[in-house]
Give the backbone structure.
Amino acid sequence: MANPMYRQIAEDLRAQIEGGDLEPGQQLRTEIELRDHYGASRNTIRDATKLLAAWGMVETRPGQGTFVVRKIEPYVTTLTGSPKVPILYGEVDDSAAGATSGTERLLYSTDPQVEIQKAVASVGRLLQIAEGSQVISRHQKRSIDGTPWSMQTSFYPMGFILKGADRLIQADDIAIGTMKYLEQTLGLKQVGYRDWITVRTADGPEASFFNLPPDGRVSVFEVFRTAYDQTGTPMRLTVTVYPTDRNEFIVNVGDVPKDGDGVVPA
Amino acid sequence: MANPMYRQIAEDLRAQIEGGDLEPGQQLRTEIELRDHYGASRNTIRDATKLLAAWGMVETRPGQGTFVVRKIEPYVTTLTGSPKVPILYGEVDDSAAGATSGTERLLYSTDPQVEIQKAVASVGRLLQIAEGSQVISRHQKRSIDGTPWSMQTSFYPMGFILKGADRLIQADDIAIGTMKYLEQTLGLKQVGYRDWITVRTADGPEASFFNLPPDGRVSVFEVFRTAYDQTGTPMRLTVTVYPTDRNEFIVNVGDVPKDGDGVVPA
DNA sequence: GGGTATTTGTCCGTATGTATT
DNA sequence: AAATACATACGGACAAATACC
């Protein structure tokens, strides 16, 4: 016996899933049935399904059963350029739900939650201000087609308010865009940005908002975007968290064909 | 009791780790000691440590004990630009190991493993050739400072060989770089590339090479880089797999300050 | 709403195997 | 070889979530 029994059972079930014997969304046999089928104890069957869950192939629902996971249609964000999704702020109109046609996707964003905070170490470092100094924090949760998609928090130096950009501390959307607003009020123009991309396990609130399984299987992208003004000074830090199971990114460098068919690997 | 016992125990141990009572690398008390301490059964203690392992906070080693994980110093790759690490091919000279000084990091790469393969769906789509047509595959495993870092496979259309780029099927490094070689032999010049970034769970060989825990906790970046020539035709597809626990990425857009202090969030 | 059957979740005790020191 | 520590496996009991009548 090279492999332990629970692993062999997991491999067997994996083969059934990958072979198509078990469709995505379909329910597996119950633990009792699997116990009798494999001649193992229920706990060993549970070890096998736990391993499959760690592989991201099944999920268990208390009171219901064990199901083959349905892959979420990933949303692709192009980091080198602007997103092309129509954005809807405020309350969702339920009557309009389900009316999105074709491949067009609807992005819904909560109104910004504005707070004055002390800069933690990472925020201070990236904004090049002292750790602990005051910053404006604008937080939004965003969904696409009803699926929780990302949580975004933008940080601005507190000095922007004193210099006249007082709309930053109002808890509503700045329709023309904050970058244009800062240009009009403070003369700050964004000339470039740097994205820092990491992956980590989701914390509690994130797992809750994104509906992630509690076993820590799905991690999240954390993207730190530092925007620089014409003097090379950081003018905004945007931290966005995306679950890795429903998000992918594109980076275009140099002369490349337009996005379209043939850019998606799967 | 809002939470089950194993979860409360896990939270308690987590607080000890985050509070600094348990240092990274330090051994936890054994399962038997924890069982007596918390008044639970050994199986419940094991459920708690399994949860901590899923959170990426501890790792268990058979015959040794349970240890607080040591965070790996992440390696940062700038996607918009060329890497700046010195590359060493072939066998490693052990006598030189440990002699790297300062912040300089040593990249070691295996000799390319060259194969002729049929293009799978994703390779065919990104290279814009028919699925199942022949491609040259050049695979390398790479380490930084002795730590397994990435697995990279480049795919070229088979036609390149017939047109004279026959060094592509030799299993050694092309010192001047394959891009320059293709320019010299075929007149193909890379004018840009597109990176497609996804995250998925590691498969068996990947988990083995990268030394990842078998519980599926650590996932991997999979970056598909399609290089385009002056006619806008894909000339190479490079698929690189990086463990997410030791890799981060940077994307620079527009006019940004040089990399250096203040670009790292943590 | 209530009650019941089904299914997974939690917890226990025990025994044995395997890896490491 | 022996001791230690985690890994695997069993069987049992009860709890909690869900679905259905």
Notes: Residues 5-18 of chain B form the longest helix (14 residues). Residues 90-102 of chain B have pLDDT under 50 and may be disordered. Chain B touches chain A through 49 residues (CB under 8 Å). Residues 53 and 212 of chain B are 12 Å apart (CA to CA).
